[in-house]
Amino acid sequence: MAAKAITRLANRASIFSPLPRRCFTSSSEVNSHAPPFPPREDLTKRCVQWVFLGCPGVGKGTYASRLSNLLAVPHVATGDLVRDELASSGPLSSQLSEIVKHGQLVSDEIIISLLSERLVAGEAKGELGFILDGFPRTIKQAEILEGVTDIDLVINLKLREDVLLEKCLGRRICNQCGGNFNVASIDIKAENGSPGIVMAPLLPPANCMSKLITRSDDTESVVKERLRIYNEMTQPVEEFYRRRGKLLEFNLPGGIPESWPKLLQALNLDDYEDKRSAAA
Ligand code: AMP
Which EC numbers does the record give (predicted)? Predict the structure, then answer.
């Protein structure tokens, strides 16, 4: 990368640095089996800086958005920032459209610029903490993020690749309310020691039914390319966080009804949800 671009990246990255370290500190005993969770009594003060990793279609958006509601921190999805930029027909949109259409990654420079703008705008509104979804996707992005702020925890969602493809092909979005749905009905039997997996469709309410659209990059050939790019560019990011003791591996056992309670349990948040519902 040209020196000028690096300077601009570094300048952009420095926008992260005013973000004060507001959340709990990682424990020194952290490893991939015992991620850096705070003791339960700290949960009311929790203001997390978390990252979701995982292949396209695994459900990062679904679980990040649920956790963001539960913990009252913003869910920041870089894919959404890219789609907003595309929809705005701004100066970057024709360049981005070609990249996204082919399942390629947007340059680190552009994505950092979009993300810094989003975080700075959020900070101006008083937002604290974040759950990042879809960032970092390259080692360079991970290094920049690590250099400017302290990520508490990285949740790596996992599903087998044939299920990922079916889920991407079944994904539908309501073009009015923005809700995410899925028409795929997955029922894979256990075989050769691998567990079966059942995921019921996540159907929209009647008023969204006629407004459903499919993402232009959710076609079979583009999903396969996105999976290939994930394995090449993003899988090393898993190792980057594993080495730092920040990675929580989570194999999704099925659809939302089975996975959500187990994820909360893995995050030590099961009690937290009960208390929140009781207080509501
Ligand atoms: P997603 O909704 O996360 O699947 O992202 C949609 C598209 O946005 C991706 O296929 C990329 O083209 C682009 N994108 C999102 N996040 C990043 C990132 N961190 N780095 C590069 N490109 C990204």
Answer: 2.7.4.3
Ligand 1 center from residue 229 Cα (angstroms) = 11
> Which of 16, 48, 60 is CA-nearest to residue 151?
48
Pocket mutation for ligand 1, best pick of 78, 110, 116, 235 (most atoms within 8 Å of C-beta): 78
Q: Counting beta carbons within 10 angstroms of the beta carbon of residue 138, is it exposed (0 to 12), middle (13 to 18) or buried (19 or more)?
A: buried
Is the pTM above the cut of 0.90? no
Question: Greatest CA separation found in the chain?
Answer: 55
